[in-house]
Amino acid sequence: MVKIMARSVRAQACADLQSHYHASMMTESTESPPAVMFFNAADPSGSAGLAADLASCSAVGCHPLPVTTALWVRDTAEIFDTIEIEADAVVEQARAVLEDVEISAWKVGFLGSVDVVNAVAELLADYSQVPLVTYASNFHVLDESQTDDYIKAMQDLILPQTRVLTGNQSALTQLLLPEWDGEAPPTLDALMQKSQQLGVQYLLVTGIVASEGRVENVLMSPRRVLLRESFELFEAGFTGAGDTLSAVLTAILANGAKLDQAVHEAIEYLDHCLDFGYRPGMGQVVPDRFFWAQPTEEEDDTPSEPGTPTLQ
């Protein structure tokens, strides 16, 4: 992929992503966009966690409702520490908003502790009609003494309420098959079968390395593969890609899109975000969630007409 898109290509990418949103956002009773609640960790580097959720959700025309479940001490290279938040404080954040705003979808990311998993699961059960996307990741930042209990709580309490479970093959294996000790990773069918046993409706496995510098993303139901898409494998190391994909998928579902179409658009959006990724510090590359809003080189080289306002 080239780094800089022409203006027409960039505009078309944005138009394709947002073409069907406006009808669902505008009704006779309200002009408010769909609201999406995110349970995730606060990330001061702006790379992943709630920072990725907010930017991705806003980029496709939804209103984000961020609920902080933990605090990360991190930069763009790594997470140094996790500061836990009391479960009651997490619930109070969410309840205050839920009593005021009607939500159209929500996402569960990193919850930080078993107590928070229990509390969030109880909250989700009160709104069982709202579709839930669960993102499997960041188990490595948990204290080793907590990991097994955390994964068990996610399996027992969050996954049975999950419409779409997503993550890369490694993270999904750790969540679904934590005792796996085979030399090769489990097959996609094995992951889907275990997901079904735990109550998950659909499984989206991302970043499967294929041949010739390509990666595949596969959406599965218990019966069959619903979608398989291949994209160029980027050589750079990214942080926040999984949160970006899961957040934008949740937002597109909130706009009323069918699942296969939502996954297709979310993957396409992520591909553009990675293509325009940037390195804000000395660590990894961050996806540009507002790639379509950045000026192209053509635009930078074009002098402004007299009297044309410019941003400084």
Count all strands and give the number.
Answer: 9
Q: Based on CA inertia axes, which overall geometry fits?
A: globular
Let me know the average pLDDT.
88
Indicate the percent of residues in helices: 25-40%
Uncertain residue segments:
1-11, 20-29, 306-312
Strand order of the largest sheet: 3-2-1-4-5-6-7-8-9
Task: Kindly provide the radius of gyration, computed on alpha-carbon positions and rounded to a whole number of angstroms.
Answer: 19 Å
CATH class: Alpha Beta
Helix- and strand-based class? alpha/beta
Strand content: 15-25%
Question: What's the domain count?
Answer: 1
Q: Please, what is the CATH homologous superfamily?
A: Ribokinase
Instruction: Could you tell me the CATH topology label.
Output: UDP-N-acetylmuramoyl-L-alanine:D-glutamate ligase
Main beta sheet: 9 strands, mixed
Our count of helices gives 11
Cα-to-Cα separation, first versus last residue: 30 Å
What does this structure look like?
- The protein has 312 residues and is of the alpha/beta class.
- It is built from 11 helices and 9 strands.
- It has helices at residues 7-18, 21-25, 49-59, 87-98, 114-125, 144-158, 169-176, 188-197, 241-254, 259-275, 297-301; strands spanning 35-42, 63-74, 79-84, 105-108, 132-135, 164-168, 202-209, 214-220, 225-232.
- The protein has a 9-stranded mixed β-sheet, sandwiched between helices.
- Residues 1-11, 20-29 and 306-312 have low confidence and may be disordered.
